[in-house]
Amino acid sequence: MFPFRIVTLLALALCTLQRGDVDSAEVDGSVEGTVSVTKDGKAVSAGGTVVVYLRDVARTSRDEKRKSVIRQHDLQFSPRVTVVVRGTTVEFPNDDKVFHNVFSASRAARFDLGLYRSGGVKSVELKREGVVDVFCNIHPEMSSRVLVVPTHHFAIADASGKFRIDGVPPGTYPVVAWHANGGEASGTVSVAAGRTATISLEVPKQDEPEEHKRKDGTPYLRYE
After folding, report:
1. Each residue of 127-174: pLDDT tens digit?
2. Does residue 162 sit within a domain?
3. Which of 125, 149, 173 is at the close of a domain?
């Protein structure tokens, strides 16, 4: 039998640990809300992925050394839209029976993975926040967009425009809503410990982008 004093100390330690678990769970809050997509001041169907993310949140180990995959399959990139945390390495496996040449001329990431055959895999680390437009230098119909965000505090809105971001430390943060077709909106949200903050954002839908060019800036060759 343990002496009474030791048993009492053990019981107090256990209570402290349990209370600490509860307290730590209550430290973080959440952000939820809705995003509407408009064109010429009228609500329209989103017609694409809408991402909501927070800025200026302290980075954690969850933000580091991530990997993501964008496949080349049936002469398309899959998925067409990807969200990654800054510092993520994105792999581009070639599942097709033809050669591909993956490249981007975006400000957030400029790279050229070169020509590689079926079964090959090449990758690139995305170090800067922003939008990365990815193309194949051989097949003009292949395109993909990668949104590089500052931390893992992001969410993809559902078909009705609703979203929720959990595990947010208390504080006031800029919040950004990004539409895959190019529109963006921003606001500010204040998160209290153990509480859910709400926000509504309105994103303008933009016109479809112009046809992209090859990596050297010339048009793709057209074969009739």
Report:
1. 999 999 999 999 999 999 999 999 999 999 998 899 999 999 999 999
2. yes
3. 149
pTM: 0.84
43-95 residue pLDDT tens: 777 667 899 999 999 888 887 778 999 999 999 999 999 999 999 999 999 99
Structural domain boundaries enclosing 201: 23-57+153-206
Domain total in the chain: 2
Q: What is the DSSP string of 24-89?
A: HHHH-EEEEEEEEEEETTEEE---S-EEEEESSPPP-GGGSS-EEE-EEETTEEESSEEEEETTEE
- DSSP letters along 118-147, please? TT-EEEEEE-SSEEEEEEESS-TT-EEEEE
